[in-house]
């Protein structure tokens, strides 16, 4: 499905009913937006895990502008601020009230900014393996230099130099870095996942290349404005969004909850799948908005 909003076309998909029979009544389930990371990928990998939450909520997936199945356009508008406004416009287009906002990695950055700028639009905020400012780049460079193979170090050099400028090069980056993203990396399963994904080099280079917006952003001054109950999930072994950044977010969002998964890297939903899903489902059920 496609929504024509803000001068572009955003692809979205819906998993699960929003209104379900419950004895003598119809019960409305909360609607969640699942916000993919990257930038430069799409929502397809999200479906493998989050579809299992549809007994608790209706799940909406979407691709950021210029990525996945969404329309291409002015590359200068492939930014965090534009993604935030697109997300709010999509919520309005779908006629939704406050949503459960679940953002992973870069998607967590979008979710944080959206919840701070549109607090009445978010009932619950779940931030997965993310960071609130550009300092995560330097920490990730340090970690990959310490833990990575020479090939992985070179792949990350390409990321931060803006050299992932073709689909083939971007795919090769993910192939090389897979064992750092997940402690349970399965090359065969990862290859199938990459086959499903639509990769967008323009979007990742707008973010990470020299002068890219993820080299300078800082959401920390905005975080105290977030009013939604917030759950922050981190992987103890995450190389690109070290758990220290989740701890920082926890300190800055009033009343937030933090959980660090001890046997996970950046892909908690792969490394500790059931515990990850249980944490999200439990938070939605038991954490009411004040």
Short description:
The chain is α/β, with parallel strands linked by helices and 290 residues long. The chain contains 11 helices and 10 strands.
Structural descriptors:
11 helices; globular; Rossmann fold; alpha/beta; single chain; two-stranded antiparallel ribbon; 290 residues
Notes on the structure:
The chain has 290 residues and is an alpha/beta fold. It has a domain at 2-133 and 218-286: Alpha/Beta hydrolase fold, catalytic domain (Rossmann fold, 3-Layer(aba) Sandwich). Helices cover 40% and strands 19% of the residues. The chain has 11 helices and 10 strands. It has helices spanning 46-50, 80-93, 106-117, 135-147, 150-161, 167-181, 187-196, 201-208, 243-252, 268-271, 273-286; strands spanning 2-5, 8-15, 19-22, 25-28, 31-35, 58-62, 99-104, 122-128, 230-235, 257-261. The strands form 2 sheets. Strands 1-2-6-5-7-8-9-10 form an 8-stranded mixed sheet, with helices on both faces. A two-stranded antiparallel sheet has the order 3-4. β1 (2-5) and β2 (8-15) form a beta hairpin. α2 (80-93) crosses α3 (106-117). The chain is globular. The mean pLDDT is 96.
């Amino acid at each position: 499905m496609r929504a024509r909003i803000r001068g572009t076309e955003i692809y979205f998909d819906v998993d699960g009913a929003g209104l379900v029979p419950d004895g003598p009544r119809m019960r409305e389930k909360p609607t969640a937006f699942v916000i993919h990371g990257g930038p430069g990928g799409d929502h397809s990998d999200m479906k493998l895990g989050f579809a299992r939450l549809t007994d608790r909520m209706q799940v909406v997936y979407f691709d950021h502008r210029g990525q996945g199945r969404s329309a291409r356009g002015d590359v200068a508008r492939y930014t965090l601020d534009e993604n935030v406004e697109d997300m709010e416009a999509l919520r309005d287009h779908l006629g939704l009230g406050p949503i459960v906002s679940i953002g992973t990695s870069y998607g967590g950055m979008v979710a944080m900014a959206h919840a701070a700028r549109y607090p009445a639009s978010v009932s619950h905020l779940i931030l997965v393996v993310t960071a609130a400012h550009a300092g995560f780049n330097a920490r990730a460079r340090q970690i990959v230099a310490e833990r990575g193979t020479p090939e992985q170090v070179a792949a990350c050099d390409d990321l931060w130099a803006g050299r992932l400028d073709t689909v083939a090069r971007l795919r090769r980056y993910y192939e090389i870095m897979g064992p750092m993203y997940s402690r349970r990396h399965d090359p065969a399963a990862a290859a199938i996942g990459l086959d499903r994904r639509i990769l967008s080099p323009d979007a990742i280079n707008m973010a990470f290349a020299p002068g890219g917006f993820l080299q300078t952003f800082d959401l920390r001054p905005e975080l105290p404005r977030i009013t939604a109950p917030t759950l922050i999930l981190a992987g103890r072994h995450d190389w690109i969004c070290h758990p220290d950044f989740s701890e920082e977010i926890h300190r800055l969002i009033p009343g937030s909850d933090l959980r660090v998964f001890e046997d996970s890297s950046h892909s908690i939903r792969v490394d500790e799948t059931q515990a990850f899903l249980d944490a999200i489902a439990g938070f939605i059920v038991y954490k009411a908005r004040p």
